[in-house]
Design a protein that fits this description.
This protein is mainly beta. The chain has two domains: 232 residues, outer membrane lipoprotein receptor (LolB), chain A (Clam), CATH 2.50.20; 111 residues, Phosphorylase Kinase, domain 1, CATH 3.30.200. It has a twelve-stranded mixed beta sheet, with helices on one face. An eight-stranded antiparallel beta sheet has the order 15-16-17-18-22-21-20-19, sandwiched between helices. Strands 1-8 form a two-stranded parallel sheet.
Length: 364
């Protein structure tokens, strides 16, 4: 679906660490030999058209963040996803909700969003360097390619085959070599003929698997072109916006520039359009992201951190707190009239130091 260069805001530059699945596994497939390195290459290179239905579930215990309820729900509940993918730049993904759905269409460089519940159609132009995570990012092909791309040189080994969506699937295990990431392993099962990823599991360095997302239904064929045409419902609210504006719930006017270094890590310059005040530090699965936010959002997030077992952080000015799960850490700090969010698949001590390192003053 989306290119791996389109990183997901609030998941540590793509290191999503989210989910524990409730699906019962199918009977194991017959054993077969697989070259794990070749399978990784094929997964990264393939763009297979398909029509399918996938599910993921998550229980990370993250704090509530005002204005980001839909994002937090992706990381703390069940996500049901219908996908119709013709090509990397032509697809439709529906997040199936109780009583409705949220649909995303991609046609070339333009996206169309249809929110059934809100009765709103949005046309989105351009491609942002960063964006908020959404249901389509949890589809097995997208998640597998994103995670594998973040650790291209780390070792992979073959995994036993298994049955997924009624077909045999061959597997590989990626073991991150960077000690600064909390990700312990990424397991991917793919169709042996097409290399289309069918199931993904992620586990921390210690403990059980905390992410599983897989197809329950799958047909490797191009979708009907009519399905990919965005609706134009009579009476719906119609909005046009640029991709850079989709994080407007968190943006502040004239945010301070991101520091060059946080927690001993240099800021990485992203390609494409940039969001003011946003910075990525470190690389690969061990990266974390800094996002400016409003003071009211920061105040509430600090308070909510205590509810889920977070710890306060002593900073030169303002208030701060950090929440660490087995795989994902979240830090928040008030900074004068604004605030900052930090997220990544890194130990909480990394974000604790970053919160302390943040300058206290906004730029003039």
């Amino acid at each position: 679906m989306s290119a791996v260069s389109r990183r997901w805001l609030l998941v540590g530059a793509g290191a999503v660490a989210l989910i524990g699945a409730s699906q019962l596994p199918e009977p194991a497939a017959a054993a077969r030999t697989v070259d794990a390195a070749e399978l990784r290459r094929r997964i990264s290179a393939q763009a297979v058209p398909y029509v399918g239905y996938a599910e993921s579930t998550a229980q990370l215990g993250l704090p509530e963040i005002p204005q980001l309820a839909s994002v937090v729900m992706l990381l703390t509940g069940t996500t049901r996803i219908r996908a119709n993918v013709a090509a990397p730049d032509r697809w439709r993904v529906d997040e199936v909700l109780i009583g409705g759905e949220r649909d995303t269409y991609r046609l070339g460089r333009t996206e169309y969003l249809w929110d059934f519940v809100a009765n709103q159609a949005t046309r989105v132009t351009g491609v942002a360097a960063f964006r908020l995570p959404r249901a389509g990012d949890l589809l097995p092909p997208d998640l597998a390619r994103q995670l594998l791309s973040l650790a291209p040189d780390d070792p992979v080994t073959a995994m036993p085959a298994r049955r997924v969506a009624g077909r045999d699937a061959v597997g590989l295990r990626l073991t991150p070599s960077d000690p600064q990431t909390t990700v312990g392993r990424v397991d991917v099962w793919a169709d042996p003929a097409s290399a289309l990823p069918l199931r993904v599991e992620v586990a921390p360095r210690a403990g059980r698997t905390v992410l599983t997302t897989e197809f329950l239904e799958l047909d490797e064929r191009a979708p009907d072109p009519a399905v990919l045409r965005p609706p134009v419902p009579a009476g719906a609210n119609k909005v046009t916006t640029r991709a850079v504006d989709l994080s407007g719930a968190l943006r502040v006017l004239n945010p301070p520039p991101p520091p060059d270094v946080l927690a001993g890590r240099r800021r990485v310059e992203p390609a494409g359009e940039q969001l003011a005040g946003v910075g990525v530090y470190g690389s690969g699965l061990a990266a974390f992201v800094l996002v400016p936010c409003g003071r009211d959002i920061a105040d509430q997030a600090v308070a909510n951190a205590a509810v889920v077992g977070g710890t306060p952080v002593e900073v030169p000015s303002g208030t701060a707190a950090v929440v660490g799960t087995t795989l994902l850490s979240v830090g928040v700090r008030t900074r004068g009239r604004t605030g900052s969010l930090l997220v990544g698949a890194v130990p909480p001590d990394v974000l604790r130091q970053a919160l302390v390192d943040l300058p206290s003053r906004r730029r003039a």
